[in-house]
Automatic annotation (TrEMBL):
Assigned EC number: 3.6.1.-
UniProt name for this protein: Phosphatase NudJ
Any one GO molecular function term: nucleoside diphosphate phosphatase activity
Domain of life: Bacteria
CDD domains attached to this UniProt entry: NUDIX_Hydrolase
Assembly and oligomerization: Monomer.
Organism, as annotated: Pseudaquabacterium pictum
Keywords: Hydrolase, Magnesium
Length: 163
């Protein structure tokens, strides 16, 4: 048995609905242009809630205020070797937060690899499933639409995170 410990890749996401439309980003991936919730990796020294706010701001230029936890999800990505890159087998652990955004800050640019932001209806999101970066895009939106709301305090952080 190996002594190596399995470690999922922790990500955070913002689920934002406004006037019946959801905020998504179109981003360049190794598989081409894909749609995703504003999302990314959790950084050292931040809580998942802080990470979701940071990622949303970086990817959309909109300040995000998390108001509830939509859910915690696991998904696996298996990417075959291609274009000189090795194969990947990554399990993602995603913390998805629901909330609201402010208007885009015109002084900010979108982080690469984001190409643009989009506001799509639930039907448009479903119709674009083949372009989703992961199955979690739809799952988070479906859970939001089903009224799934957990208090922010469900995910706690010990002060040792910052020391």
């Amino acid at each position: 048995m190996s002594d190596a410990r399995w470690k999922p890749s922790v990500t955070v996401a913002a689920v934002v609905e406004q006037d019946g439309r959801f905020l998504l980003v179109e981003e360049m991936t190794p598989e081409g242009l894909k749609l995703n919730n504003p999302a990314g990796h959790l950084d050292p020294g931040e809580t998942p809630e802080q990470g979701a706010a940071r990622e949303c701001l970086e990817e959309t230029a909109c300040a995000f205020t998390p108001q509830w936890l939509v859910g915690v999800y696991l998904a696996r990505l298996q990417r075959p070797a291609a274009h000189g890159q090795p194969a990947e087998d990554i399990t993602y652990l995603r913390f998805a937060y629901g909330g609201s955004v402010a208007a885009p800050d015109p002084a900010r640019t979108l982080d690469a690899p984001v190409v643009r932001t989009l506001w799509l209806t639930p039907d448009e999101v479903r119709a674009s499933a083949a372009r989703h970066r992961s199955p979690l895009v739809q799952r988070c939106i479906d859970d939001h639409l089903a009224g799934v709301r957990h208090p922010l305090g469900v995910v706690g952080a010990d002060p040792s995170l910052w020391t």
